[in-house]
Amino acid sequence: MTARRPLPAGLKRRTVLQAASAASAALALPGLVRAQAAPVRIGYAIARTGPWTTGAQVSQEPNYLLWAEQQNAAGGLSVKGAKRTIELVSSDDQSNIETCVRTYEKLMGSDKVDLVLPPWGSNANFAVAPLATRFGYPFLAPTALSRRLIEMKLPYFFSLLQQPAPMMNALVDMLKANGVRSIATIYVDDLFGLENYAALKVALQGTGISLVEDKSYPLGVKDLSPVLRSIKDKNPDAFVGLTYPPDTILASRQSKEIGFNPKFFYASVGTAFQLYRNVMTAAGAEGVLGMGSWNAKTSPGAKAYFDAHVAKYGAQKEPDRWASGATWAGLEILTAGVARVGLDRKALRDYVANTEHSTILGKIRFAGSENVGTPGSVGQWQKGEFEVVWPKSNATSTLIAKPAWS
Prior knowledge:
Elements (H helix, E strand, L loop, with lengths): L12 E5 L2 H9 L1 H6 L4 E7 L6 H7 L1 H13 L3 E3 L2 E3 L1 E7 L4 H13 L5 E2 L5 H14 L3 E3 L5 H5 L5 E3 L4 H14 L4 E7 L2 H14 L5 E8 L7 H10 L3 E5 L2 H14 L5 E5 L5 H7 L1 H4 L3 E2 L9 H14 L9 H19 L3 H10 L2 E3 L2 E3 L1 E2 L2 E2 L6 E5 L2 E6 L16
Parallel strand pairs: 2-5, 2-6, 7-8, 9-10, 9-11, 11-12
Antiparallel strand pairs: 1-5, 3-4, 13-18, 14-15, 16-17, 18-19
């Protein structure tokens, strides 16, 4: 057993040893110790406290744990044909960029883990992705929605989510096709909100759709009713909230309270979470739009993943219908890559960059850091399920008119 290394001040590490049963057997039979391969040590930092927690604990960490459990139940991760158990080395980044960066510097620099998994959110990935390239660690990010990151041309960074331009283009195409003439938007004042807002403005050019109001708000906002009342007075056909999960719920609740019910109500991130449906109720969520790209109907693999997730975590903690799928797709790519080329990180990076990957979301391929295999998409709550409604080629259901808030 390796000695535990000291941690930077203020950090608390939780090491999840998925190989516990194998280790116990090895201690009972000393001869096995010499024969067993060392575990594959995979490190990450993730929000377990602070404002990033909702997204991180829905879209990412549950999937990391499920994946490691499945791999180890099958004898371990296949490393060029040899099975090696997974040891997850993880800690709470406390929704703090500095803590997140220091943790990854230690994981890659002094701990020298075999592989890393990304943190949650565009801001954290923006800070950590350059480190991954500096240390030479493939970085398949499922919750980084940032054109700036793509444009940095970091050779070890791969973004699995559809980027702001394709997502906003899909939304605007859908709105235009359904007769929308005016929209209003609010957006969180950080990288995610600013980039998506900029992409939305570009997508609206030449469409004939007028932007009647656009307002930013700070992270951690507690009251959106003043801006929502102002927007209600302008009576737009569509509302677009470029929002984080707590703000998505806040905007929805307060829109209901003030009677703001446009023909199209779109908000994200968080709309695709089961939490949204639970808080708003299935009837209250009906017709609400947001970022979403899959559900259990998308593919047989998607249904198998969905069922396994529910079996592990229960029906009250379903995967979300957007980034959870991207997280699992990234783990599928990582699994296949390690099976093919092993733990040589440069070879693994080249495999990810130069291969078309079969995943639960369909075929994924990268142009530089960008996933260009998965189109921009729009989802909508319908009868308790978050359906993909645009583009029609990927749809699991057809778009419906939003009823009054229930």
